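task queued by scheduler; priority normal; single chain, no ligands, no partner chains; default sampling; output format set to structure tokens
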Amino acid sequence: GFVLAVATGKSRRGLDRALAATGLQTAFDATRCADESFSKPHPGMLLWLLEEFNVASDRTLMIGDTSHDMEMAVAAQVARLGVA
């Protein structure tokens, strides 16, 4: 019952390489990269994913490891969880 997506500052090529190296290509329902949207902390990538899956911002959790991730979540008005 969950949608799992990636919104990353990596390029498409870099993300695809990382997902292939870890075997996680099929773990995510969608991915968005900086070369496909505005870069973080702009909320564009995250808002695009919310719209694509018709998910309300109050039913979304952004998990990130940078201040840009947290700023993007605030700008998109979604809950956020910072990890080290």
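post-processing summary
- Strands lie at 5-8, 30-33, 61-64, 79-82.
- The mean pLDDT is 95.
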